[in-house]
């Protein structure tokens, strides 16, 4: 389980990046928390730097759009999904349920 940040540090419409061998982006989409692989599957870009549109994030490089709920791309140029992760809030802290191998920053 990876600590992302406190709930207060991630207001609606914002994101945070968890560094590691497989970076993870955590989003607050209108009060719902989502975590996905941070790297766009089309080209190396941080999705945490992208733009939120409802439950979708737009890659900042080439505008590929990913569904935060499923990780599936909804338009080109991305064709492969990003990984999704479960998110848990405990005592005001946001955690991402990820493998221990990914817990290295």
Main beta sheet: strand number and arrangement? 6 strands, antiparallel
DSSP summary, beta strand count: 9
The helix content, as a percent range, equals under 10%
**Spatial sequence of strands, sheet with the most strands:** 1-9-8-4-3-2
GO molecular function: 3-phenylpropionate dioxygenase activity
InterPro entries: Rieske_2Fe-2S (IPR017941), Rieske_2Fe-2S_sf (IPR036922)
Keywords: 2Fe-2S, Dioxygenase, Iron, Iron-sulfur, Metal-binding, Oxidoreductase
EC number: 1.14.12.19
Please characterize this protein's 3D structure.
- The chain is mainly beta.
- 0% of the residues lie in helices and 40% in strands.
- It is built from no helices and nine strands.
- The protein has a six-stranded antiparallel sheet with strand order 1-9-8-4-3-2, with no helix packed on it. A three-stranded antiparallel sheet has the order 5-6-7, with no helix packed on it.
- Strand 3 and strand 4 form a beta hairpin.
- Keywords: 2Fe-2S, Dioxygenase, Iron, Iron-sulfur, Metal-binding, Oxidoreductase.
- It holds the Pfam family Rieske.
- This is Bifunctional 3-phenylpropionate/cinnamic acid dioxygenase ferredoxin subunit.
Can you give keywords for this protein?
single chain, 105 residues, mainly beta, six-stranded antiparallel β-sheet, three-stranded antiparallel β-sheet, 9 strands, iron-sulfur
Short description:
By secondary structure, the protein is mainly β. It is built from no helices and nine strands.
Fold blueprint:
Blueprint: E1 2-6, E2 15-18, E3 24-29, E4 32-37, E5 51-53, E6 56-58, E7 65-67, E8 84-90, E9 93-97
Antiparallel strand pairs: 1-9, 2-3, 3-4, 4-8, 5-6, 6-7, 8-9
GO molecular function, one term: 3-phenylpropionate dioxygenase activity
Organism: Amycolatopsis halotolerans
Pfam family, one: Rieske
